Amino acid sequence: MVGVGVALLLVGAPVVAQPQELGDGEILGGPLESEPPLIELYTFGPGELIFERFGHATICLRYHDPARFPEVCFNYGVTDFGEEGTALIWNFLRGAQRFWVEPTRYATMYQYYASEDRDIWRQELALDADERRAVEAELWRNITEEHRYYVYDHFFDNCTTRIRDLLDRVTGGKLSKDATGTYPSTFRDLGKRGLAGLPPLIALADFLLGRQLDDHPTLYQAMFWPDVMRAEVATRLGAKVDHLYVRRGPPNDPVGSTGRLLMFLVALGLVAPLAVARWRGRFERVAIGLAVLAPSLWGIAIWTLVLVSPIQGVRWNELVFVLVPFDLVLPFLTVARRRRYARVRLAICFLASALAGLGLLHQPIWVPLLTAVMPLALIAVPRSRRAHDSGELVDGQRVEDVASAEPGAPGHGDGEPGRA
Questions:
Q1: What does pTM read for this prediction?
Q2: 215 with 268, same domain?
Q3: Residue 184 and residue 138 share a domain
Q4: Residue 127 falls inside a structural domain
Q5: Residues 169-201, buried b or exposed e (16+ Cβ, 10 A)?
Q6: At 389, is the pLDDT very low, low, confident or very high (cuts 50, 70, 90)?
Q7: Which domain holds residue 66?
Q8: How do residues 196-242 score in pLDDT, each as one tens digit?
Q9: 3-state DSSP call for residue 309?
């Protein structure tokens, strides 16, 4: 998956391809034994695939008679990745992608993640009998048809938060107690950790994902990330961490390029022909079309997401003031109208820049801002002396005629009368 959908999936919470679940004939109901089962939490390191780069979590029931009742794990990260790509992306954008929980044999689960060379950590939870029984009952209840489905949210309702919330409920709030303080990293910062090594996608997220990602989550909210939940479960529930499988490949580096310089250079390359065209006075209309194409397409994407997506991290995007689809009309306007339009747009962009400098806008807007401002600035300023003195044609008009046709120019009906 590429483009808009990829950015949402990637900067959001963990999504994973799944091992084979239990067959329907093997799905059991509890309580299965007179003594409640042991409860184990498993968290997994990143995988190679894009949607595996944020890790994963599952919760398991370990019964006392494995010959009769094999250990079973409940995976809340299952969805239909076999859907047509466009439909899958569209459902994510609309906040309508349905996920569900599937029971999986422990052995199958372990073999799957080990074969992918992903770190595996286990924590046996020190819960009392009533708490273990409550976890067992809810897990079996959650595989029933009426309770197994939920609408995935990248940060607030995913395969890890489902387990976090379950454990918090059965322990009387041990995970959420005193966990309302501000976490040091923003949602966007946490997303970058998963995207390290994929800088173009980090830069893509700067354009398409809005101001909510620049909020600092509470510590409890930050447990959407499996690494954070594992650490807090160890501290708050006294669950020792056992590193069962250690990745054999190169370690996953959480630090890398943001891709912003690359995105800026691409924007600069697209606007360079316009600078040349304005200097030489030739092919300006074509050069304008090329220069405004990228910011206009960004505007179409951003405005579409703002209109159709209920996801707060997408819907509230400050770049609606910076990148707009209407810039596509610039090649088709007369020179005078084109210049007026560009000056109005520049004023809006400079206002956005000032608000960002004052801290009222929170997104990393500088590269998107430059993407919009560079072509607008070239269009807004007068043409080069070389083009004016040469008497060359611009959009079918002589340069000196174009200048005199602008409002307020000598000889124009809306300005002062010209003097001989």
A1: 0.79
A2: no
A3: yes
A4: yes
A5: ebbeebbbeebeeebebbbbebbbbbbbebbbb
A6: very low
A7: 3-245
A8: 777 777 888 889 889 999 999 999 999 999 999 999 999 999 999 99
A9: coil
